[in-house]
Amino acid sequence: MSMFTTQKRADSASPYYPSDSQSSSSNTGANKTIIARGVKVEGDFMSQGDVVIEGEVHGKVATTGTLTVGSEAVIKADVTADEAIISGLVEGNLHVKKQAVLHASAKVKGDLTVERATIESGAVLEGKVQIGQTASASAPVRTNHRPVAKSVPTPAVEMAAAE
């Protein structure tokens, strides 16, 4: 009797690989990144696809796709995204290129710069809002120029001494 067999069982499970039509990707074909509930990411986070955050992120978040922040998510970061759907807490500035939606459970503590915005009743937004401007237009521009000292003009007329 042999210890090893070469027969394959018909009921054995094989790994599952989703096909392109079944994968969870956005309509642009980019991948979707999910930060699940209970997961904490610290540092700069960048993605070229859609991002769903149900957990916690501290640092910076940047995506060329749609950022979805779940109702129990906590983001303590500056955020740059093409579109944003916020249901949880964001502490940091939001720069959204196209559209931002703040659901009733959203709480944003920071400035919002966006082309179009929908803010549901009950949402909290503590900061400045610039609607009609894209994130790239409002992003601060850094230069290596030093400020020029102001020259103080010398008066053209001098007062005569009183006699």
The percentage helix is under 10%
Question: Mind summarizing the main beta sheet?
Answer: 12 strands, parallel
Q: Give the tally of β-strands.
A: 12
Oligomer: single chain
Strand content: 35-45%
Mean pLDDT comes to 77
Terminal Cα separation, in Å? Answer: 131 Å
List the secondary-structure elements in sequence, H or E: EEEEEEEEEEEEH
- CA radius of gyration is 27 Å
Low-pLDDT segments: 8-28, 137-146
Helices, by number, come to 1
Structural class: mainly beta
Bulk shape:
globular
Could you give the topology of this structure?
Blueprint lengths: L31 E4 L4 E8 L2 E4 L2 E8 L2 E4 L4 E13 L2 E3 L2 E9 L4 E3 L2 E8 L4 E3 L2 E3 L3 H4 L25
Parallel strand pairs: 1-3, 2-4, 3-5, 4-6, 5-6, 6-7, 6-8, 7-9, 8-10, 9-11, 10-12
Keywords:
mainly beta; Trimer_LpxA-like_sf; twelve-stranded parallel β-sheet; Cell shape determination protein CcmA
